[in-house]
Design goal:
The protein is an alpha+beta fold. Helix content is 26%, strand content 35%. It has nine helices and 30 strands. The protein has helices at 2-20, 123-126, 225-229, 350-353, 361-372, 376-391, 454-493, 499-520, 523-538, and strands at residues 30-31, 39-44, 52-56, 59-63, 71-74, 83-89, 92-100, 103-107, 115-118, 128-133, 138-142, 145-149, 157-158, 168-173, 181-185, 188-192, 200-204, 232-238, 241-249, 252-256, 264-265, 276-281, 287-291, 294-299, 302-305, 315-320, 325-330, 333-338, 394-414, 423-444. Strand 18 (232-238) and strand 19 form a beta hairpin. Helix 5 (361-372) crosses helix 7 (454-493). The protein is rod-shaped.
């Protein structure tokens, strides 16, 4: 049960890493193998990119329509039927060589007819691995050492010394300097400057075990015996600068700028797995690497993954045609992608590489300020409203209501005589009544408020509080934003084997994203999705 949980956790990390990796370039990979699997090598016509040859465990197949259809042109007999390498004759593109697990084959008519040029005395000699064609000789690498033919394959002789008894991995040379040849083998890198008359070791291989006998790197089942005992994989030369050599190893890529006299490690920044298995230097001196994690391009002192859309696990060979199409020979077939011309490539700064499709820091800051309602414009509105208020008069409405009644009493009557008594009356003699309603309206202005008022004091207090709050928000969102970029860079620099560290970085990345969304009301994630959708729709 624990095993399944670990597997699911690791798979989840890989999926999240796949979806969240920003340094990758979004190439569109097309499978043009049409069902041909386990492709190990590919050869594209230099003048006509519609002509493609592939070598696999089933033989050699040819397409004349850019991969729309394929036909088998050579099936290898014997136990080891794999085709390891294909190569044109430098001065005759109708002639090609097939390096196979059962010898070296040659065709002079674009694959219609084949002849075997080399067959080893034993299975190690018979398993050919690589080939170089130079005007004076043919150099053939086998599992049993390096063989040379000076008569176009009619006869062969093995090299003496260590290079003649070790497994050959790759040969690098250039027609401009045919006497300088570099050979990568299990025991190191060897160089000749006199057309194979003498050899000098220029790079010493590092065994896969340390001095205590403990393994220093992971050994996987898909590695050959040579890969398990040596960290060397491949060597190539820059066609535009013969001083530059590149070496693929299980510990990354090495570079020499002085024809192999000294070596330095190429930055592994962005290279998910340091186990580089193949290198390609294009005619424009662009460096590509195939690792156990995918296809990468080295640009601006870092590696950028090109294989996010490449549905393959084991990438064995890379090449490019004259239309800037990149081909990847894989276990799942042959894949093709259009590479953007280097003349049109944006020279991204490291930060912009990790913020692709994401809003910039200023946009995020503005979104946070808006969401918290602490915009500087709000204070200005307060001051404008206070100033306009001073122009408004104070309106006073009054009413005076007066009700009154006045009355006076008097005594009046008649006098009597001796026989008639007099009569007297007491009653009102005078009465006054009145009812008054008085109304008043007054307008007053405090002209001094135009200069300063109590409202301005209140605004100053609120402004200080708002500025402090805004500064806190900006400080927090800025830290989160750049901490997220740093986390991406650290995650991109981790090898795929560092599962625990990658898992922790992925969790931290999700936490930082959620924190930025909380400060911006979800603006950050919404804008990423919108920018991504717009870019995909426009492409």
């Amino acid at each position: 049960m624990k095993k399944y949980i670990v597997v699911l956790a690791v798979a989840w990390v890989f999926v999240v890493s796949f979806l969240g990796r920003v340094s990758a370039s979004d190439l569109v990979w097309e499978d043009i193998a049409r069902g041909n699997m386990n492709v190990r090598t590919v050869l594209v016509g230099s003048d006509n990119s519609n002509i493609i040859y592939i070598g696999s465990e089933q033989g050699i197949f040819k397409s004349e329509d850019g991969g729309e259809s394929w036909r088998n042109i050579l099936s290898i007999k014997g136990q080891n039927k794999v085709v390891n390498f294909l190569l044109f004759e430098p001065k005759d593109k109708n002639s090609l060589y097939a390096v196979t697990g059962n010898g070296l084959f040659y065709s002079f008519d674009q694959g219609k007819n084949w002849n075997r040029l080399f067959k080893g005395k034993n299975y190690l000699e018979n398993e050919c691995t690589t080939l170089a064609i130079l005007p004076s000789a043919i150099y053939l690498g086998t599992k049993a050492g390096l063989f040379v033919s000076s008569d176009k394959g009619r006869s062969w002789h093995g090299q003496s010394g260590e290079i003649g008894k070790t497994s050959i991995l790759a040969i690098a040379c250039n027609l401009k300097e045919p006497n300088s040849i570099y050979v990568a083998c299990v025991d190191g890198v060897f160089k000749t400057k006199d057309g194979a008359q003498s050899w000098k070791r220029i790079f010493t291989t590092h065994p896969a075990e340390n001095e205590n006998g403990n393994e220093t790197e992971e050994i996987t089942e898909d590695q050959d015996e040579e890969e398990k005992s040596s960290n060397l994989r491949y060597i190539t030369i820059d066609p535009n600068n013969l001083n530059y050599l590149y070496l693929a190893t299980s510990r990354g890529v090495y570079k020499s700028q002085d024809r192999g006299e000294t070596w330095e490690s190429v930055s592994s920044y962005g290279l998910l797995s340091q186990d580089a298995r193949f290198l390609l230097v294009s005619n424009k001196s662009n460096l590509y690497a195939a690792t156990k994690s995918g296809v990468f391009e080295y640009r601006n002192d870092r590696w950028q993954e090109l294989s996010l859309g490449l549905m393959a696990e084991d990438i064995r060979f890379l090449t490019q045609d004259n239309q800037d199409n990149l081909y990847a020979a894989c276990d799942k077939g042959l894949f093709k992608a259009k590479i953007e011309s280097s003349d049109n490539k944006r020279q991204d700064e490291p930060i912009s590489l990790y913020s692709k499709d994401e809003p910039g820091i200023k946009e995020v800051q503005q979104a946070a300020i808006k969401y918290a309602e602490v915009e500087p414009e709000k204070i200005e509105r307060w001051r404008e409203q206070a100033a306009r208020r001073a122009l408004l008069p104070h309106l006073t409405v009054s009413m005076d209501k007066d009700n009154n009644r006045t009355s006076s009493s008097s005594i009046w009557g008649i006098y009597g005589n001796g026989t008639t008594p007099g009569r007297y009356f007491v009653g009102p003699d005078d009465e006054t009544r009145y009812k008054n309603n008085n109304w008043g309206v007054s307008l007053t202005w405090e002209l001094g408020d135009l200069i300063f008022s109590d409202d301005q004091t209140n605004i100053d207090v609120r402004s200080r509080l708002m500025v402090e709050l805004r500064d806190d928000i900006l400080d927090e969102v800025t830290k989160l934003y750049f901490e997220r970029i740093r986390t991406k860079m650290e995650l991109d620099n981790l090898s795929i084997e560092d599962r625990k560290k990658r898992f922790d970085k992925e969790l931290k990345l999700q936490e930082l994203t959620a924190s930025i969304d909380a400060l911006t009301g979800g603006y950050f994630s919404r804008q990423i999705k919108e920018n991504t959708d717009n870019r995909k729709n426009s492409s």
